[in-house]
Amino acid sequence: MNEFKVHRLNEAGLTKCDNVATLFEGLLLALDLPQGRERALVVTDLQRACHFAKLAIAMQTENQI
Questions:
Q1: Is the CB of residue 63 less than 8 Å from the CB of residue 10?
Q2: At a CB cut-off of 8 Å and minimum separation 6, what does 25 contact?
Q3: What is the value of pTM for the model shown?
Q4: Which residues of 4-29 are buried (b: 16+ CB within 10 A; e: fewer)?
Q5: Which residues are CB-contacts of 24 (< 8 A; sequence separation ≥ 6)?
Q6: pLDDT at 3
């Protein structure tokens, strides 16, 4: 089943995923939100979005070993 397949990434895929993480980290830093419930929700949603962005990268065959 493709829903549970492990995607092993090549160097290009790993670089793309690292870049995505860096962009999300930069966004969170740029928002400069105070501690609290709202910030926690933003962090959770950014983590979720980052996860799915990386998954989309991993699913592309050109990024796989």
A1: yes
A2: none
A3: 0.91
A4: eeebebeeebeebbeebeeebeeebe
A5: 46, 47, 49, 50, 53
A6: 79
Write down the residue that tokens 């829903």 correspond to: 3
How distant, in Å, are the alpha carbons of 1, 26, 36, 63 from that of 17?
A: 23, 14, 28, 10
Tokens 């962090």 found at: 43
Give domain limits for the chain.
2-63
Digit-coded pLDDT (tens) for 12-63? 999 999 999 999 999 999 999 999 999 999 999 999 999 999 999 999 999 9
31, amino acid identity: L
> Is 11 a residue whose pLDDT tops 80?
yes
